Design the sequence.
């Protein structure tokens, strides 16, 4: 969970080159995470799914992410 928290922080404040350099290798991490959904239940996702969300979506964990070039 610390790795995911660090990845989320880097995505919020990092430069686009640093974001891609440090987050793309995490696509190879297939460990499971428990994520709390809006209705209060927990959903199992994998680290690579969360990293994909950070790199491709505009919102994550109900927070608007800064835009990064593709």
Sequence:
């Amino acid at each position: 969970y610390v790795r995911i928290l660090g990845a989320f922080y880097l995505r919020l404040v990092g430069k686009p080159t640093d974001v891609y350099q440090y987050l793309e290798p995490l696509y190879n991490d297939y460990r499971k995470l428990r994520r709390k959904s809006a209705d209060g239940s927990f959903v199992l996702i994998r680290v690579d799914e969360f990293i994909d969300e950070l790199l491709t979506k505009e919102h994550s964990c109900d927070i608007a992410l800064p835009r990064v070039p593709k």
